[in-house]
Every structure is written in structure tokens, then in C-alpha cells.
Amino acid sequence: MTGLYAHGAIMAGLRSVSQTGDGAAQLAGLANIASNYLIAGNEGSRHGTSHPSIVPYQVFPCRDGFLMIGAGNDKQFKLLAAIILQKPELADDPRFSTNAARVTNREELIHIISTALKQHDRSHWIDRFTGIGVPFGPINNIKQTFAHPQAVARCSTVEVDHPRAGKVRMVAPPVTYNGKRMPVRRPPPWLSQHTTEVLQELGYSESDIASLRSKRIV
Known about the structure:
The protein is α+β, with helices and mostly antiparallel strands. Helix content is 44%, strand content 14%.
């Protein structure tokens, strides 16, 4: 949400400048952490991937990778316990039967879930989670990310010819406009390749540029 509000404020500010000449101001922050302090007086602290007031809601290790799991309410936790972990007794355990109890007994529950997930590969748990109604997502490494069917279908990489390095594979522009992706018109430059060109566009003369180069400023 922080990024979403920041993006919206930037776009609104640019629009405001074009219409009135005045920009916009925006304060970016995590609303849930701020509310936890304003309402309950709890100072923010480090939680890694976990959530301060929802349990279980974090990254968990499997035998060969990691999964993000977010059982955000009691119904989802019952599904997690009974169908996915096949430990229905967890949902009836007073230590874990409500979210408040799960927050209090966070360490015990996280240990139980982690121990269970480590018994199988990630693919086993993905099959178990799919279609059940408990939010989850695999944590992919870079190789898995580019091999993902969605990444392949959306042509997330592009290959260009580089005058020094030959063919170079790069990340493609991520956004399409009107069904078309922005073209990659040139390869990445080498160090200082366009320095003269840029300085000339800024109004520097050839002698100015030569002087800058002689002084090792550019």
C-alpha cells in the first residue's frame, strides 16, 4: 500500500503541476504499523517476513525451497491445519484456536508448521495449497522466476546485439501500452560511451568537453 499511495501521489502531483503549477505532498508509511502504535501504543519492531498481528503470516521453509503463507483468519487457519498440514487438532488447541492466541504462541506454532513443511518438497505443498482457499505463494529464485510460465508467456526477457559483448539477454520493459511493449532500441552503453553526446546536448562546446576530459572531470 505504501508504494501504491506513493505512485498515486506522484501521478496526482504531476497532473496538478500541469493544471495549476502547484505539486502535491505525500507521506509514505506502513499503515498497519502506524495504526498499531496510534491505537495500542506498540512501537514498531523487526519481524522479517512475518506479520506483527496475524499468525501464521510469513515465509516458511520446505525441503527444497520456501513458501509464503498467509492464513489471515480462523477459517483459513482451520483449512491450513486440517487439509494442508493434516493436523486438524491444531485448530482446536486453545493455544492456536484464535488469532490472538496464535500471536501469543507464535514461536510454538511456527515451529510446528516449519517442521511439517520441511518433510516435503515445495511442489508437494503447492499441490496441497492450490484451490483450498489459503493464500500462499512460492518464493522463486531468479532461475525459477524467468522459467515461470507467466514470465515466459509475457516475454519478460529480450535479446540485443552488443558491439563489445555480442548477444546480451536483458529484462524486457515490464509494461505494455495499448497491447504493445516499448521496443528496446539500443544495447546498454559501455562506460562514457555517450558522454560527449550528452554534454553537447547540454550546450557544451568541443573545447569545453576537451577541457573537462583533460581535467579528468568526465
